[in-house]
Amino acid sequence: MLTVLLSILMFSQGLSMDSRGTSFITAFPENIAVYYKKTVNLLKITTLHPNTTVNVTYMANGTVNTTECIKNGTILTVYWNKNVEEYQFVSSNKSFRITSDKNVTVLSVSGWEGRFQSHVVQPEQHLGTVYQVPALNYTKIAASFSLVMTSVRFLPFRLMIINAVDRNNSVTIEQVDERGQSQADRITLDPYKLFQIEINGTVREIKASEKVAVLLTHPCFDRIDCSCNMVVNQLKPPVFDKIPATFLVPSYFNAKQLLVTTNQSCSVCLYSNCISVQNSTDIVPLFGNIINTSSLISTTVHVSLRLISPGLILDLIPTSMFSGCYLLGFSSPSSSSRALVIANTSSTNGVRINDQPLNSNIRWSVMNGSEYSWALVEAQKIGTIWHPTSKIGVYMIERLDFDSIYGSPAMAINMDPDGNGCLVTPEIFVLGKDEMSWFMSRKYCLENAYQLARIVANNTVNKVVLNMTLQKPTEGWIGLRRGLYTTDWYWKNEDNFPSTVNFTYWQRGQPEKPEKGLCASVSLDPRKEFKWQSAPCCSKKKPVCYGTTKYLTYSDTVKL
Ligand SMILES: *[C@@H]1O[C@H](CO)[C@@H](O)[C@H](O)[C@H]1NC(C)=O
Ligand SMILES: *[C@@H]1O[C@H](CO)[C@@H](O)[C@H](O)[C@H]1NC(C)=O
Ligand SMILES: *[C@@H]1O[C@H](CO)[C@@H](O)[C@H](O)[C@H]1NC(C)=O
Ligand SMILES: *[C@@H]1O[C@H](CO)[C@@H](O)[C@H](O)[C@H]1NC(C)=O
Ligand SMILES: *[C@@H]1O[C@H](CO)[C@@H](O)[C@H](O)[C@H]1NC(C)=O
Ligand SMILES: *[C@@H]1O[C@H](CO)[C@@H](O)[C@H](O)[C@H]1NC(C)=O
Ligand SMILES: *[C@@H]1O[C@H](CO)[C@@H](O)[C@H](O)[C@H]1NC(C)=O
Ligand SMILES: *[C@@H]1O[C@H](CO)[C@@H](O)[C@H](O)[C@H]1NC(C)=O
Ligand SMILES: *[C@@H]1O[C@H](CO)[C@@H](O)[C@H](O)[C@H]1NC(C)=O
Ligand SMILES: *[C@@H]1O[C@H](CO)[C@@H](O)[C@H](O)[C@H]1NC(C)=O
Ligand SMILES: *[C@@H]1O[C@H](CO)[C@@H](O)[C@H](O)[C@H]1NC(C)=O
Ligand SMILES: *[C@@H]1O[C@H](CO)[C@@H](O)[C@H](O)[C@H]1NC(C)=O
User: Can you give the residue range of the structural domain that contains 488?
Assistant: First the structure.
């Protein structure tokens, strides 16, 4: 039983792409070089709910920035200078904690002279204690780009291991050398401290006693002749399942190498051309030349796939983790920022940006052998991209100079598509503790940021019931009542929802004559099937409060 539970837990943990959370930890790696002073580092935090308090703490000196955001959809940008970058291979306290009282998303951005690298900071619930490390040998990868390089840049890749908990954390770094000999190094991280190491292809696994965040980075990844940019990529804990996965690679990504990270052996196929990969992590030479065409890659188990090309390490989103809604956040809104959208070919016209359909001149390219198409969408400073009925994949792309790109998956706000946009709060029903009159019940619900329950369809009955059956059987007030003069039933809504009554669920013989009561109550007794009856408004019952669904909805923003 325990094993089953454990594997279910691991399974569900690894499978969520949802970027929302209330606790995050991250750090800024070195950008280009310690002596390039002009770099900027920033955290872009987007609130999803009204009245959100956000704390950003720099652990090195305990500086706390507390900001209260009244409005949902506010972007807080907290700037830091070069000094917060960690370039040394030591235990360090240059980490940043972001905590909030309601869900937010966090984007980390490092910039240098108009080039920006951003990545989504994973919320604490997506962090793990075990990470498979991609076998990255910089010398080998850089050599394969056939670029003219300066020797100074033959630096190894780096890993930043950040303790995510307020306790000591014992971390084991497992390596396998060229002769297949394994070796384990142990370090202890103090609360929220980080440790940076260099990797050259020999480090295979990080194991910690408590949760850690792991950033894969290189300060100066060769891009074009004699030029480079920093890369950052947050590793995700492995998913232990045997479910095949499909990855779509738009031609736009210009991939040079494919990196597979897995803890089990599997096949990796480009269409029907397969190769087998061992349980460790491997660079898979690209099958022939997929550079100019879009490709479909399938694997027999769940793996992490990264595309590598000069200046870029990009996580691919498996189709099983496509989401209904994403948030975009660009550091430099300009003609160089784009969203790359992958959608079902038959429903590309459903894709929405903010509250609008996509511009009709968007060109969709069908991806051979799959039911998907991709398109580049001109990006706005901030916005949502969503689909009302099907899941889509979205990457944020920044064009650096000389036609190279930098990118990462966009921030997923909700995995499930919703007809009205990006759902951040589903509807909820909450039963008040004390019995009171209908009028006091209405006040009680309003004071708790709810309104009296509105039950307008059969499936709503089931939702109310879901949350009430744990309570002792009783009776509760709902927002249905009679007009004083007309005696017609109507819903007393606090929003602009129509008050007409199109669905009723009366007990047999109900409602009674108006003299017997102008208000309606619901029986919270399973034996009475949760049906309604009329009742005098001054009688005492428990309030059944209702919170409507809430969405993140940017209206069509001005392009910048
Ligand atoms: C916060 O986000 C998580 C997903 O990361 C979601 O499961 C949860 O319901 C959200 N909480 C609230 C109160 O919206
Ligand atoms: C947010 O806080 C303000 C001031 O405390 C309050 O007036 C407002 O009703 C709150 N809004 C929500 C949606 O809770
Ligand atoms: C903490 O460090 C940051 C970044 O170096 C700096 O901006 C800030 O002034 C420092 N705060 C204190 C209290 O020293
Ligand atoms: C805290 O962050 C907010 C949002 O970016 C900024 O306006 C404010 O100046 C910061 N406060 C401090 C003390 O750094
Ligand atoms: C923010 O920090 C203050 C103390 O500086 C603390 O009282 C508060 O609980 C923190 N809030 C969140 C959301 O972390
Ligand atoms: C990295 O690649 C270079 C060149 O291919 C090779 O000489 C070196 O041994 C490799 N390093 C490791 C640790 O495998
Ligand atoms: C790779 O790194 C490990 C640990 O940092 C080191 O022991 C090993 O000698 C390195 N190998 C090469 C070929 O540089
Ligand atoms: C890979 O498989 C071998 C043999 O099947 C096993 O000894 C080794 O521990 C595995 N390595 C990882 C990283 O799972
Ligand atoms: C059930 O009630 C609790 C509070 O008692 C609330 O937090 C939760 O969101 C409700 N669930 C649903 C599905 O309405
Ligand atoms: C809702 O409708 C379905 C089918 O129309 C029916 O089986 C079910 O009993 C109804 N539920 C309620 C609570 O009325
Ligand atoms: C109820 O039905 C009327 C007429 O069909 C319609 O105009 C109204 O929008 C419906 N109300 C709701 C809440 O669905
Ligand atoms: C904030 O929430 C309200 C209520 O759900 C919604 O109407 C509004 O569009 C939201 N604002 C943004 C910017 O998402």
Answer: 428-547
